[in-house]
Amino acid sequence: MTDLTNLTLADARDGLAKGDYTSVELTEAHIKSMEAHRNLNAFITETPEKAIEMAKASDAKRAKGEAGKMEGLPIAIKDLFCTEGVQTTAASHILEGFKPQYESTVTANLFNNGAVMLGKANLDEFAMGSSNTSSYYGNVINPWKGKDGKDLVPGGSSGGSAAAVAAHLALAATGTDTGGSIRQPASYCGIVGLKPTYGRCSRWGVVAFASSLDQAGPMTKTVRDAAIMLGAMAGHDAKDSTSAPMAVPDFEAALTGDIRGMKIGIPKEYRVDGMPEEINKLWDNGIAMLRDAGAEVVDVTLPHTKYALGTYYIVAPAEASSNLARYDGLRYGQRVMDEGDSLDDMYMKSRAAGFGKEVQRRIMIGTYVLSAGYYDAYYNKALKVRRRIYEDFATAFGTVDTILAPTAPSAAFAIGDNEDDPVKMYLNDVFTVPASLAGLPGLSVPTGLSADGLPLGLQLIGKPFDEETVLRVGGVLESAANFTATPFGQEG
Amino acid sequence: MSSLDKETVRKIAHLSRINVSEEGLVELAGDLTRILDFVEELQEVDVEGYAPLTSVADLTLPLRKDEVTDGNIQQKVLANAPMTDNGCFVVPKVIE
């Protein structure tokens, strides 16, 4: 039998339906792979017993003729989703040992659709980072290696999810994206990552970072897999007041392969100074592929692109400082307290011991920009610039159907690089942050390799709630690029 | 307006309720100043007449009936608390 971990989600779904193998067999193969690749540190918590139990239940369900959209398919869950009775840490010391008493809406939707959970994937602490080096539970290692053989970052914050899918430890994984945390690690690990429109997936039960930006989405081997998985995650949820009361389309049906006559926008502002030549070339190749497929390529302008990162690094920390106020050492999480301490002493000691460096920095920047005297100059100003960025996209989408741009300004870098200055790390998000600020869907598709043999992705940005167009064009890009490289060389 | 001194960082750390050592304050002053320098470029954007965008969700926040929808889950609420007593969270003494 072929190695079941090499299957795509779609293949595995069809193989299960045909009875070629059972969910238990599929799940066992992935548990073995997960155990064999512990060096990647992709998981904070492995849940093999739960996985087998879920797989057995799924096989029984299928025998009765009831199969959901993800029936029997083993996946990884980013450890930012609350999972009932299973430790949920957000990669932070402050939540070590926290066992949610409820299930997040997205994981509940996936499980109701038959998905099997292999474990909780590693991430940057509270999803704050672009390298997965801020996790309290250790760095995640990218399964890909450059020519010098150094350990590389998988990207972040959904680094464990990306590494798990790229190394075939899971058929797919959930991620969350606040400023690029699905798309950038997908690009660094050579997989597909889709950040849906803000409001498409419920945020209920997802540990909050920046509530006006956070959005859950699928991380998969193929565009088709992303379409299947998004359909099983999405949907209106009364428990999230920003969840959109809209029907979930059949995303897979959007993959017609026909983009003739569609208009693809190319934003000139994304050709930033100092962009590596190989990224420019990757982008040009992508443009040629879409043109060859019959699409019309149109230049568009997004004049405020340059200000997106600055806007993001005010808005996101401001929301984080408010969201993370809940970690008070009282109701859940770590408490640090000495005899005779006041309530304030306890808050201050618990939060100092529980939060890592980057999280502390962001809470403090957020607190500062929201404080009396600075609110207007920083926070309110950033919100006004955010509107200009939002309107830039709205104007561009008056003439084009989707926008094509690079996902990240580089390939994966070595662990330890960009750590000396927080701002250097932030620059990794330069191409992903604008769509996040505007709440738009963004899909990263691997389309080429760097000179060093590392994967590089291109990103399609769509109109609000038009994931279908993004997926359709992404499918065409995927076929044309024919990206077959794997971290295992030719064998995969 | 963007260079932060140690005393300002001490104040922010207190507002954030995070204990920071003296050396930590100096390091944070450097880091936070670099971040503020970076975001300084927003000042050059003309936003005259543009309203702040707090959410991209194009909807009116829904209202529901004002009625109890859950309850009787005291054990669940307390399950992850570091310290409880008689069905209550335990906090340090806050009154003399």
From TrEMBL, chain A:
Task: Return the broad EC class.
Answer: ligase
Q: Which GO terms describe its molecular function?
A: ATP binding; glutaminyl-tRNA synthase (glutamine-hydrolyzing) activity; transferase activity
What domain of life is recorded for the organism? Bacteria
Stretch forming the signal peptide: none
Any one GO biological process: translation
Query: Which reaction does this chain catalyze?
Result: L-glutamyl-tRNA(Gln) + L-glutamine + ATP + H2O = L-glutaminyl-tRNA(Gln) + L-glutamate + ADP + phosphate + H(+)
Give the residues annotated as active site: K78 (charge relay system), S157 (charge relay system), S181 (acyl-ester intermediate)
Its Enzyme Commission number(s) read 6.3.5.7
Q: Which GO terms describe its cellular component?
A: glutamyl-tRNA(Gln) amidotransferase complex
| PANTHER family, alphabetized | GLUTAMYL-TRNA(GLN) AMIDOTRANSFERASE SUBUNIT A, TRANSAMIDASE
The record's family statement is: Belongs to the amidase family. GatA subfamily.
The protein here is known as: Glutamyl-tRNA(Gln) amidotransferase subunit A
Q: Which organism is it from?
A: Thalassospira alkalitolerans
Automatic annotation (TrEMBL), chain B:
Q: Keyword Amino-acid biosynthesis on this protein?
A: no
Protein keywords? ATP-binding, Ligase, Nucleotide-binding, Protein biosynthesis, Transferase
Question: What GO molecular function annotation could you give as one example from this UniProt entry?
Answer: glutaminyl-tRNA synthase (glutamine-hydrolyzing) activity
Which reaction does this chain catalyze? L-glutamyl-tRNA(Gln) + L-glutamine + ATP + H2O = L-glutaminyl-tRNA(Gln) + L-glutamate + ADP + phosphate + H(+); L-aspartyl-tRNA(Asn) + L-glutamine + ATP + H2O = L-asparaginyl-tRNA(Asn) + L-glutamate + ADP + phosphate + 2 H(+)
| GO process terms (BP) | glutaminyl-tRNAGln biosynthesis via transamidation; regulation of translational fidelity; translation
What EC number(s) has UniProt assigned to this enzyme? 6.3.5.-
Role description? Allows the formation of correctly charged Asn-tRNA(Asn) or Gln-tRNA(Gln) through the transamidation of misacylated Asp-tRNA(Asn) or Glu-tRNA(Gln) in organisms which lack either or both of asparaginyl-tRNA or glutaminyl-tRNA synthetases. The reaction takes place in the presence of glutamine and ATP through an activated phospho-Asp-tRNA(Asn) or phospho-Glu-tRNA(Gln).
What PANTHER family does UniProt report for this protein, alphabetically? GLUTAMYL-TRNA(GLN) AMIDOTRANSFERASE SUBUNIT C, MITOCHONDRIAL
Query: To which protein family does this belong?
Result: Belongs to the GatC family.
* Complex and partners: Heterotrimer of A, B and C subunits.
This protein is called what? Answer: Aspartyl/glutamyl-tRNA(Asn/Gln) amidotransferase subunit C
Source species of the chain: Thalassospira alkalitolerans
